[in-house]
Design brief:
The structure is a single chain. Helix content is 70%, strand content 3%. It has 470 residues and is mainly α. It has one domain. A two-stranded antiparallel ribbon has the order 1-2. A hairpin with a 7-residue loop joins strand 3 and strand 4. Helix 2 packs antiparallel against helix 9, helix 5 runs antiparallel to helix 11 and helix 8 packs across helix 14. The longest helix has 42 residues.
Length: 470
């Protein structure tokens, strides 16, 4: 009896000021940070380095890492408002915006977030098809020889992927199932390490690093001056996309126990997480570039054919990761528009009548859904798949996503919220320094967006709609 009372007292000591029990530490937060940052964007890093060369490429990787870490440090102090240690908790990124900035900023930030989420779904659809095509082509070359005609189309694979996501989108609260995140994390590390190992092996096979100081040459590598410019700008967007982190930082910080203060713990976790990720990214980007030189593929894993079983494992890991990750990104969009629609038409059976579909061989368990959930979610996935079929450009889509998210979500809002939180006056030295960072990030984002859109426009002249080939 005494032991139970002791456990109750310990449990009460763990309850925070908002009634929740938090057990997160610097190490769990570091793990979450690494998992949040490392994703399919890592596969484009060797190509990105190749566009800029041995000096600007690594500098861009390190520069984006530093900016991401610096703004993450600013954002950690905004978890509680108005005081970073004793203020009211903000459980999400949007809660911080709502607590510190004007209502118009909440709307703009929400639009940027949802564009990023939807764009990532499009990118995941394209990446999945690319990885499946790579598996088919690798096996074809292995069994028929490298002189065989092994071109394959990804149109069918995009459609099949869309069908799978339609089915999964009907499941409730999929983004909250821990198993999905665990599998996604394991798969992202698996294909990243496989890509790193394959690149290191290829680099070792020819003994000396390939590549040039300025990257892809105009004319010599079959590219025009304009293409070189667009690809270099697009590469910046790819690198920015690979470091996407700020959107999830507040949610990770909300899991931390205190004392010590959450902002202090989260700053350490961000340092460790982004530090490890940067070492990993620089290794993959530079080793991949050293292995392939200026011919680095847009997706690292598509550049290898042997050992075919290891290449296949890497690409299959990408597919498994993205099947679950797609749902993590689309569920917040579903929740937002379904809540808005149900509030707008509170009496409509289309939005409120719940249908139950019993699961076979299970007692009392059923899939609950509304017609809105069945119809609108299906149409949303179909629309996403159609756009992916029309824009089957892995690197261009990643570059555009990075440019859309980098300035507003990674730099502008963390900087602006920190200025409001810390009460930094206009004209102070700190204010000017933060504004210079803000303006520089805006310029980079705009240039990256222009490069990605220009590359898409060029490629659309030479592709057939709804026909994706590798």
């Amino acid at each position: 009896m005494e032991m139970e009372k002791q456990k109750d007292r310990e449990r009460m000591d763990m309850v925070d000021d908002d009634g929740r029990i938090r057990t997160g530490t610097v190490w769990t937060a570091t793990t979450h940070a690494i998992t949040a940052v490392i994703g399919s964007g890592v596969l484009a890093l060797p190509w990105s380095v190749a566009q800029m060369g041995w000096i600007l490429g690594p500098l861009a990787l390190i520069g984006c890492a530093y900016v991401t870490y610096f703004t993450a440090v600013l954002l950690t102090d905004c978890y509680r408002t108005p005081d970073p240690v004793h203020g009211k908790r903000n459980h999400t990124y949007m809660d911080v915006v709502r607590s510190t900035l004007a209502p118009k900023d909440v709307i703009i930030c929400g639009i940027a977030q949802y564009i990023m989420l939807w764009g990532t779904m499009i990118g995941y659809t394209i990446t999945t098809a690319t990885s499946i095509m790579a598996v088919v082509r690798t096996n074809c070359y292995h069994y028929k020889g490298h002189d065989a005609k092994c071109n394959t189309s990804g149109t069918l694979y995009m459609v099949l992927f869309g069908i799978v996501e339609i089915v999964l989108s009907q499941l409730p609260n999929l983004e909250k199932i821990t198993l999905i995140s665990v599998i996604a994390a394991i798969m992202s590390f698996a294909y990243s390490f496989i890509g790193l190992a394959l690149g290191a092996t290829k680099f070792a096979s020819h003994g000396s690093p390939r590549g040039t100081i300025l990257g892809v040459h105009i004319g010599a590598d079959g590219v025009s001056a304009s293409t070189k410019v667009w690809h270099s700008l697009q590469a910046l967007g790819n690198i920015a996309f690979a470091y996407t982190y700020s959107m999830l930082l507040i949610e990770i910080q909300d899991t931390l126990k205190s004392p010590p203060p959450e902002n202090k713990t989260m700053k350490r976790a961000s340092l460790y997480g982004i530090g490890v990720t940067t070492i990993f990214y620089v290794s993959i980007g530079c080793i991949g570039y050293a292995a392939f030189g200026n011919d680095a593929p847009g997706n690292l894993l598509t550049g290898f054919y042997e050992p075919f079983w290891l290449v296949d494992l890497g690409n299959i890991a990408v597919v498994i990761h993205l099947v679950g990750a797609y749902q993590v990104y689309c569920q917040p969009i579903y929740a937002k528009y379904e809540t808005w629609l149900s509030n707008k038409w509170p009496e409509s059976p289309f939005f409120h009548k719940v249908y139950k579909l019993p699961f076979p061989f299970s007692k009392g368990k059923s899939l609950n859904f509304t017609m809105c959930k069945l119809v609108v979610r299906t149409l949303f996935v179909v629309l996403t798949t159609l756009i992916s079929l029309m824009l089957p450009f892995f690197n261009a889509v990643l570059g555009l996503l990075g440019s859309v998210a980098f300035w507003p979500l990674t730099v502008y809002y963390p900087v602006t919220m920190y200025i409001a939180q810390a009460n930094i006056k206009r004209g102070e030295t700190r204010w000017w320094g933060l504004q210079v960072l803000n303006a520089g990030a805006l310029i980079i984002s705009l240039l990256a967006a222009v490069g990605s859109v220009a590359d898409m426009a060029q490629r659309l002249k030479h592709v057939t709609m709804f026909k994706t080939e590798l």
